Amino acid sequence: xxxxxxxxxxxxxxxxxxxxxxxxxxxxxxxxxxxxxxxxxxxxxxxxxxxxxxxxxxxxxxxxxxxxxxxxxxxxxxxxxxxxxxxxxxxxxxxxxxxxxxxxxxxxxxxxxxxxxxxxxxxxxxxxxxxxxxxxxxxxxxxxxxxxxxxxxxxxxxxx
Length: 160
Description:
Number of helices: 6
Radius of gyration: 15 Å
CATH class: Alpha Beta
Number of domains: 1
Order of helices and strands: HEHEHHHEEEH
């Protein structure tokens, strides 16, 4: 996974572009992976860990989005990605929300193993979205699965 993070950081540096993240279930893991790479300070402008609905809303995610679609939805991930990109004035924003095989009594949804993520490209005003089911037994393994998938997606987007 470190090699994927290196490629993403290198591509961002070459393109003179920056990224910001708003993470929930990954707990800052994506930002951590990026900051493990030399030169990360040139590309990572800001990162927020917003575990609660309250702090997603305080960061700018519309409460109406969470109310209508739930906090665990592609719509919320998309708003997280856009919000963090505008907040940090970064070229890309990444929003991540979902559950890592654990129910949430405060936010009941059908799937306890589904993670949504969005990558917002501010220059082109477009959002790339995807989701994945986590399959591992350990939480840290599921976080790694999600982070690896997002790094792969970022690399694809940056190579276009």
